[in-house]
């Protein structure tokens, strides 16, 4: 049969329509005959890395040399025999033994490479890791971070933050990346780690009103590291010291307290080092001054805290510009004893003040405090000036309310503690100080405190320092407690603020059982990193310290 010439065209058209329908159906179902042939996405290129190493032979800082020091583990007054370094014992018990190893791995992995390829990336890493340590310490103290099974140290312990930080500064010191950094950049990495791990970059004061519609009252407080830790390498009980001011700062960071008028006191905290150089570099001013300036987050109260006397809260009235002869945790002394120990004396650069400690490297390291020009407004370092800054500063706290406010109520007194009544500790307005009548003569005069506990003294007996003299010490002494108080209150005056600012010296907490009635009885064990008396002191001090801060907060409702 002959086909017409049009037949093949009809067959071809039918086949084409069939194929088109199938394609439409596949598309509607989300499929395609070509799916298996689609090109795979390009793999993500690996992050660039550079070579690195760990220099275990590098000279360690003075504080880092204590990392391998144990408590006494033999001889008299020892029950336990644990020769493990005290830092390792505390960090393992609290679960903070992972921070330094994890940090070291991020700096330099086991294969000798690091994703940190520039100084700027290194800054970002050390700040992030320091902040993570700070937040973990706050979380543990405030009950949001679990402790390892079998832990004996309570959440309130402050010591893990100090020892974990020192392990991390050691890891950073030993890090040797293949890219070049200047000596100043290497020092800055340590500085950034210190500041971040002390909460100094974590301050975040609220603006405006609380969700309730009531006003926020913004408070910043500071505490200190543990100190008096002994000679590196020599077993000693000073290693187990804690600092209840640091514990209070960790407990209060981010806390909100409803005040008598319904307004909300929001507290932000930071920790200061027990070493002179960081103060000389302006660490405290750099932390506080942004919140002393005009703006919606300007602080309403700035309170410094530290550990002071036995069984009493001292509210320091006058703060002196003078440095004493005690060494910092880093071994450095700014005003060594001797005939040159006068207000204008400055140590020569390169001076070694303690065997094994770093030399003096900063201008203005001497017997007087010299805040940084960037906040003070003038250069106090190049040439000493008697009254710039002033020899004494004063507190502006609500002293009568704090002294008489019964902040002891409900605070269980620790074993062996002594104070009036049966609860908590005495509170006193501390009005003592010492001065040089002649700023060029080492002879000094001491003015005692009023000695009145839990009441205000006769004001006629309280005499302010003579402005013609030079300070030898404030009510809080001549160590870094006094320095933190001086710098805080001077900054208040520099910015012309009318706010509560001053220093609370909390009782000493380093009280362990010593087997005698006056020390709570118990069994003395110099190998123990804690005991019930030590913990009772911290608990009581923190509780009464919080009550005193609340009194300051309530004074703000009248402003």
Mind explaining what this structure looks like?
There is one protein chain. This protein is of the alpha/beta class. It folds into two domains: 50-197, no CATH class; 216-319 and 381-558, Peptidase C15, pyroglutamyl peptidase I-like (Aminopeptidase), CATH 3.40.630.20. The chain has 13 helices and 15 strands. The strands form four sheets. A seven-stranded mixed β-sheet has the order 5-6-4-7-15-8-11, sandwiched between helices. A three-stranded antiparallel β-sheet has the order 2-1-3. A three-stranded antiparallel β-sheet has the order 13-12-14, with no helix packed on it. Helix 3 runs antiparallel to helix 4 (119-141), helix 4 (119-141) packs antiparallel against helix 5 and helix 5 runs antiparallel to helix 6 (183-197). The N and C termini lie far apart (113 Å).
How is the secondary structure organized here?
Layout: H1 7-28, E1 50-54, H2 86-94, H3 99-107, E2 113-114, H4 119-141, H5 159-174, E3 175-177, H6 183-197, E4 216-224, H7 244-252, E5 256-258, E6 264-272, H8 276-280, H9 283-292, E7 301-307, E8 312-316, E9 318-320, H10 373-376, E10 392-394, H11 399-404, E11 426-430, E12 433-436, E13 445-447, E14 470-473, H12 480-494, E15 501-506, H13 532-555
Parallel strand pairs: 4-6, 4-7, 7-15, 8-11
Antiparallel strand pairs: 1-2, 1-3, 5-6, 8-15, 9-10, 12-13, 12-14
Helix pairs in contact: 2-5, 3-4, 3-5, 4-5, 4-6, 5-6, 7-13, 9-12
